[in-house]
Amino acid sequence: MTALLGLTMVITANATPMINIFELGVKKGAEVQYHAVAEHNISTSIRNEKGTLAMYSVKSKTDPNIAYMVEIYADQKAYETHRTSPQYQAFLTASPKILTDHKKRIALVPQFLGDKKVVQTPEIRMNYVVVEVKPEYNEQFKKIVIEEMAQSLKVEEGVMAMYAATMQENPSRWIFFEIYANSAAYQSHRETPHFKDYLKQTGEMLKEKSYVGIHPEFLGNQGNLHFNQP
User: Fold this and answer.
1) How many CB atoms neighbour CB 102 within 10 A?
2) How many CB atoms lie within 10 A of CB 134?
3) Is 152 inside a domain boundary?
4) Fewer CB near the terminus (10 Å): N or C of the chain?
5) Bridge partner residues of 110 (DSSP)
């Protein structure tokens, strides 16, 4: 995990970036309070913690009481620094009043992490995709995905962030989390030669593919992140 190209200054050559996704149940009637606590946690962390590279609070489109928190840290030390911060402790203190017992951490291994500085607007489009790859194709699939995501960030102005990670317990199961400036940018992305080439090359490699419908609540990142797993 030392192939670091153009990373934000806080990541050193020996760093191991972390990506976490938490699926959280929000109590009915506590949605506004949850949003306020999450916004404070994210905005304060991005402002004060250089090792906290991205934090995104998003909600399910189908269930308003299911929230997701996507977090990226420069390394384990940065994650531990965040966990001891006043804003995270405030989130923990408020949790019993705003969260249900539905709490799930999705343990991930980062494969590609790339972004620009995300400026939240009402038009932002986000994708959360789960892909199961046939094990014999996993390394080939990884190479194709990394090349496609890197190219998209480089040449497409409307592509704001692309993250790819695999499940710790199942390296053939991939999570893609993507941010576009708007739906038009996403549709434009789908028409690019590199995306069409990705679809053509990987079509026979997939066992299954599913989408989690999400919409943004509060988004924060440092920007200019680029990491790929060798």
Assistant:
1) 12
2) 13
3) yes
4) C
5) 165
Could you tell me which of 23, 93, 81 has the C-alpha nearest to residue 52?
A: 81
Residue 178 belongs to some domain of the structure: yes
Amino acid, res. 100: T
pLDDT at 30: 98
- Tens-digit pLDDT profile for residues 115-125: 999 999 999 99
Residue 155 lies in a domain: yes
Domain residue limits at 91? 18-228
CA 141/CA 134 separation, integer angstroms: 9
Domains contained in the chain, number: 1
pLDDT, tens digit (0-9, with 9 covering 90-100), for 89-117: 999 999 999 999 999 999 999 999 999 99
Round to whole Å and give the CA distance between 50 and 57.
19
What pLDDT, in 10s, does the model give residues 131-140?
999 999 999 9
Q: DSSP assignment of 43-96, as one string?
A: HHHHHH-TTEEEEEEEEESS-TTEEEEEEEESSHHHHHHHHTSHHHHHHHHHHH
Which domain CATH number covers 165?
A: 3.30.70.100
Does residue 125 lie in a domain region? yes
Cα dihedral sign for 87, 45, 123, 151? Answer: negative
